[in-house]
Design brief:
CATH topology of the largest domain: Arp2/3 complex 21 kDa subunit ARPC3
CATH class of the largest domain: Mainly Alpha
Oligomer: single chain
Radius of gyration: 22 Å
Number of helices: 14
Largest sheet: none
Number of domains: 2
Structural class: mainly alpha
Amino acid sequence: MSHITHNEPHKELLMATAITTLIALAGLYIPVVGLLVSVFVPLPILFYRSRLGRPRGVLILIAVTLIVASAMRWRSMTSAVYFFELGLIGLILSEMFEMDLSLEKTVVVTTGIVLGTGAVILALYGLVSAESIWDQISNYLHGNLELALSIYREMDVSEEKIGILAQSMEGILYVMLRIMPAIVIVSTLLVVWSNLLLARPLLKSGKLFCPDFGALNKWKAPEPLVWLVILSGILVLLPHKGFKLFGVNGLIIMMTIYFFQGIAIVSFYFEKKQFPKILRGILYGLIAIQQFVLLLVIAAGFFDVWIDFRRMKKGVDDKNESDTQRDY
């Protein structure tokens, strides 16, 4: 696939590196909000990889990773890998777009490559480092929990609540370490999905190719995934701790997939009922901050397999019946 030719590619290369680096540094140094900002690290790399070509896209990723690692004075391998992986998402997504794969393949392949690359990097680092990967991750999480405590203190949260949180830190750390596989997979899926959604209008505005995935608010998960939910639920009920942890991790991942389907249902009815954009934004925000509403969205996505909230099966059945009548 051909790329648009530009007279000053070096300026665009510097611009892309600067934008991506600023987003990454904001994610690194701004408490709490920075974590949300870092989600957008893949977007400029995706855009400029599509605009300037693969070699320059790789160069942007390497440059940003080195700058961010230098800013941290090479102290945290975990953080360096984190930002490299974010940039890699943009690079791989652009490759998947060029291959014009289906939506499911684009998300799954991108997620798989990024997770595989991260695992290899951390494994290699573990071989040459005196500190194990497990200790690196544990220290990283502990540091973030300590940061959360300091932020609560600055927000004038009562000492009683801070004391309860401080006493619970070891328990929180214990749980987080054991559901870390699910946390990593889910966070990668969310970043891939978010950047895929944001990339579509961005690429179109730059007159760059973007696959036609169709109406995303009609997306639904493959029906056989229901069996993975059932299997994970059974594993949670087993007395063996290893099986139980495997089941919990599986359920967290599957809940995320059905959240995507649930949010597609919500978007479908927002569009069908022509909700104003401001109201949509408020309701999406409510889903994000209210756990009960979030669980309702996940449940809607899961039970859509049988209930078919958007009546899409009826449309397919009517079409098939019409085609059959024409054949006769």
